[in-house]
Amino acid sequence: MSQLPKKARALLKSVFGYEDFRPGQAEIIAAVLAGEGVLAIMPTGSGKSMCYQLPALVDERLTVVVSPLIALMRDQVRQMRACGVSAATLNSMNDAQENDEARRALRSGELRLLFVSPERLFAPGVLDTLARAGARRLAIDEAHCVSEWGHDFRPEYRDLGAAAEALGAQVVGLTATADKATRADIAKRLFKTDPHVFLHSFDRPNLALNFVAKDQPRRQLTRFLDKHRGESGIVYCSSRDATEKLAEFFAEQGHQTICYHARLDQAVRNRNQDRFLQEDGIIAVATIAFGMGVNKPDVRFVAHADMPSSVESYYQEIGRAGRDGLPADTLTLYGLDDMAFRRRQIDQKDVDDERKRVEHDRFSALAMLCETPVCRRQTLLAYFDEESPPCGRCDICLQQVKIYDGTVDAQKALSAAMRTGQRFGANYLAEILIGAATEAVRRNGHETIKTFGVGKDRTKQEWSGIIRQLFAARAFASTEHGGFMLTPKGEDILFGRAQISLRLDALAPRERRKEAPR
Ligand code: ADP
Ligand code: ZN
């Protein structure tokens, strides 16, 4: 393993004001300074940028940083300059003066970090200029954009490997996307020989993970918040409307709340955010607009009133809790309506079918995490390709969830959908199963089908739990109008070619079951 020069630690303190490296940084920076090809995979917020910022200062040479977002480049330049580091950007949004200044700094040899968009890097003459300026290394931020396997492929990234070669520069790739296929693909595309791969754990052991099927969300959230009175926390909602209503509701319950979403006035947003950052014990009820740049170390809890859009966003959002390393709590409410809402959102996006399919798959991974019968942390880390033992602390570990062979129940539910033309939602299917001859059921003549009443042994609520699990397991897919149809997997189960395990506890919301014996 490469040794970290003393100068690195000294500059970390004198330039950036940090006492110590974050986990993983020291090893990566040592390898970068030793001139190795490096691919670093670290979770968001773990301090990836430092892995190229500091080396540029240690060896006093130019590092070219390729980054996909102009806003982020500008942000970094501002931060670097505030630390007294010579930095500039070259991008299509620059005015002439900014570009002239960048070129001047390049020629003078004082520049340490130059942020460029990939398009700009390949503009005529730019590579030559950079070579002449003595570019030592090419740092590629969001390196997963180079891979078509990743979720954010950008064609402009494709030739970055060749650009590095033309420059004769060392490559340092950084990304928070860790699945194996993408990782291998990045390595192949950016590096001539196998890079030194640093895979930092995505585990956040101080976060307690809890999921609950949504039943009476206000009551469920109130209980969670009452456990955390006086602490700072965030409650995420999927709509602006919901944030306002919930913030008001929690305030009535005696909590101090602020509301945050994109439609609020900028001034109001800033004021609310400042209050959250500066005061203790404030609950931010917010959409995902809240979070970027919220770096409060002592956030003690994050709750999701609605399901997030993917495992990545879930991970990022809960990751805002417990940055100080002390225990922090999380709660995610999930339900069929949420799942249908997210699916609809994807379907309505203006992107091609392939992309929609990928997004559906990514959402399905989150739905599986909600319905998983095994440890949440284990399931979450498995998504990032990490193996881990059961954590012993999540809701599943603590409850010892019971699973049963749900194949027969699943067949009943799937058959109910099949025999009613694969166009009805969970509520209607549950009515058919318990044999409720509601007006709608009679109007459709469905009280005469074979499946009517085959599920009398269970309650309507239990059937919704089963249908939700089938949906999460992708045995059911949703139709355009919110109904359910069978997937190939659903057909396999229906026709006895496949089995499915279901969670007993998820059939009825847990909280009510606990209260029932009283
Ligand atoms: P990433 O790119 O991995 O999402 P960033 O590079 O933006 O993360 O870093 C996240 C935050 O961590 C930044 O505010 C950064 O200044 C801070 N940071 C980086 N390294 C350290 C360190 N060694 N000690 C304390 N804070 C650090
Ligand atoms: Zn667990």
TrEMBL record:
Q: Which reaction does it catalyse?
A: Couples ATP hydrolysis with the unwinding of duplex DNA by translocating in the 3'-5' direction
What do the Gene Ontology cellular component annotations say? Answer: bacterial nucleoid; cytoplasm; replisome
Q: Where is the signal peptide?
A: none
Specify whether Zinc is a keyword of the entry.
yes
UniProt xrefs under PROSITE patterns: HELICASE_ATP_BIND_1, HELICASE_CTER, HRDC
Manganese listed as a keyword: no
Extract the GO molecular function terms from the UniProt entry.
3'-5' DNA helicase activity; ATP binding; DNA binding; four-way junction helicase activity; hydrolase activity; metal ion binding
Q: Which cofactor does it need?
A: Mg(2+); Zn(2+)
Q: What class of enzyme is it?
A: isomerase
> What keywords appear on the UniProt entry?
ATP-binding, DNA damage, DNA recombination, DNA repair, DNA-binding, Helicase, Hydrolase, Isomerase, Metal-binding, Nucleotide-binding, Zinc
Q: Which residues form the Helicase ATP-binding domain?
A: 29-196
Q: Which GO terms describe its biological process?
A: DNA recombination; DNA repair; DNA replication; SOS response
> What top-level branch of life does the organism fall under?
Bacteria
- The Helicase C-terminal domain extends over 220-369
EC number(s)? 5.6.2.4
**What family does the entry list?**
Belongs to the helicase family. RecQ subfamily.
- What is the name listed in the Swiss-Prot or TrEMBL entry for this protein? DNA helicase RecQ
Q: Which organism is it from?
A: Methylosinus trichosporium (strain ATCC 35070 / NCIMB 11131 / UNIQEM 75 / OB3b)
